[in-house]
Amino acid sequence: MESKAMLPNRTAVFAPILGVTALIFAILTLLAGLPPAESLPTFVIGIGVLIVFTLGIGVAAWHLLLRPLSTNLSATIQPITISGATRNIIALFLTLSTLSVGIAGVWDEIWHSKFGIPFGEDFFWRPHLMLYFSFGTLIIVGVWSWTVLMNRGKGTLQQRFRANPLLGVSFFAGLFTIYAVGTDPIWHKLYGADLAPWSLPHLLILIMILVMASLGIAFHKSLMPARSWQMNFRFAWRDLMVLIILVGALVDYMLIFTIQWYAARPGSKQMTQVLGYPDWLLAVFITFLVVLFGTMALHSTRRIGSATLVGLLAFGVRLLLDRGFGGVREGTLPLLIIVPLMFAIDVVYAIAIRRTGKPPALWWTVGTVAVVFGIVEYPLIAAVFTFIPVNIAIPGRVIASAVTGAGTLWLAQLLTELSGYGEEEVAPVGAPSRTRWVGGSLYAAFAIFLVLFIVTAVPPR
Questions:
Q1: CA angle, 397 as apex, 257 and 318 as ends, to 5°?
Q2: CA 108: distance to chain centroid?
Q3: CA separation for the pair 169, 174 (Å, rounded)
């Protein structure tokens, strides 16, 4: 694998990203609600500790991967090469891990809502075993990456991490996984049940899932030849693997950011909370999901139709999980809003690609999503979530959607650009038939195992 500094021209945006992340954490915490006054001081201290640790990991990653080096240090970096077969195995496991974390997250929520198993007694049930597989995969890849960097790298830590940025990112992904997963039980032990699904530990886990997805895409793209934008629907099998990764991540993100709305019932806690939220909050969450995963799908595959396909696949996966596990809530409801918006993004990209051969300008994509959400989908939202007042002013939703869309589109394009630095290290076009057969067999074997693992699971009593 060729050595390439991880987009040094993006160094200047790193501090704003960390700052905005901390701000978003604070805003979502306030929107979720605060604990009783007697618990507030320790709660604030806990939030501060989490933000400091999160920023600390971010600063360490910036120092080792992005901070500009002196000319002498940059000139003496010795590349670390990783074979295509190794990258293929890692891509395989990261694909399976991201899909597993999506399925397990929904499965876990359904069983909790049906059987009311308290925290701690669910440690070894099957949804959690799937989560452990996903988290463990990322940690193992991180440990392996550190070993390779230390044993084969030369020079300072910065030089070793720049010798193969993909391995450097993998190490920090594993490190962040240990931190994020370990935070959740400690948080529950200290503060009890979450006030809202988007608690700080859950936001950290969502960041970890996004890192897992981006890393899996990066390993796939390191084996794919660079391509121009395509208007046809002839998806290569690695394109489909990339889309499966995004489906797994989207299913979990949708669970955290929309369950309050699709779980709301008259007299329920969720109904009381939802009616107390600002009207624009649903617009922010839906726009974030649509633009993030729709744009990542398009820019990762460079095929028109990818965004809509991710939405449809996510709908199918969520429908199967709801029906298969006997879910007590309709988790597909938000996708009735999400899929049309993803189709709108595909249309905007198709028009721009056909006219100029390039993706549309940011304002054009964002404007389309905001207008479609605020106007075209207005009656659809009222039909899906009948408790939302129909007399709410549309401009607030349009503005919230536009602002969210602009920031999310920039983030999604940045993530796919970062995950694309391996495109210069491509495998020969047309992998050997044996490689394709082995890869396909492994995916098929996992699919069979997954089905058996799920259908033989015994619900808790």
A1: 30
A2: 18
A3: 9
Burial class (CB in 10 A: 0-12, 13-18, 19+), 272: exposed
What's residue 13's pLDDT?
64
- Give the N- to C-terminal CA distance of the chain in Å, as an integer: 51
Long-range Cβ contacts of 51-55 (<8 Å, 24+ apart): 51/22, 51/25, 53/179, 54/21, 54/22, 54/25, 54/179, 54/204, 55/18, 55/21, 55/22
Q: Sign (positive/negative) of CA torsion 276, 278, 283, 286?
A: negative
Nearest to 217 by CA among 107, 296, 145, 303: 296
Give 396's contacts (C-beta < 8 A, 6+ positions apart).
279, 280, 283
Domain boundaries, the chain: 224-419
The pLDDT of 213-239, averaged and rounded, is: 88
* φ and ψ of 239, to 5 deg: -60, -45
pLDDT for position 250: 97
Q: Are 290 and 342 in contact (CB under 8 A)?
A: yes
Alpha carbons 166 and 161: distance in angstroms, whole number: 9
Q: Average per-residue pLDDT in the chain?
A: 84
Torsion over CA: 157, 159, 164, 165 (sign): positive
Maximum distance among all Cα pairs of the chain, rounded to whole angstroms: 67
- On whether the CB atoms of residues 24 and 16 are closer than 8 A, the answer is no
CATH of region 224-419: 1.10.1760
Q: Bridge-partner residues for 230, per DSSP?
A: 303
The CA distance from 250 to 258, in Å, is 11
pTM metric for this prediction? 0.90
Tell me, rounded to whole angstroms, the distance of Cα 418 from its chain centroid: 14
Helix, strand, or coil here: 285? helix
Candidates 79, 238, 243, 242; CA nearest to 168 is: 79
Taking the C-alpha atoms of residue 48 and residue 54, their distance in angstroms, rounded to an integer, is 10
The CB-based long-range contact list for 440-449 (8 Å cut-off, 24+ gap) reads: 440/237, 442/92, 443/92, 443/95, 443/96, 446/96
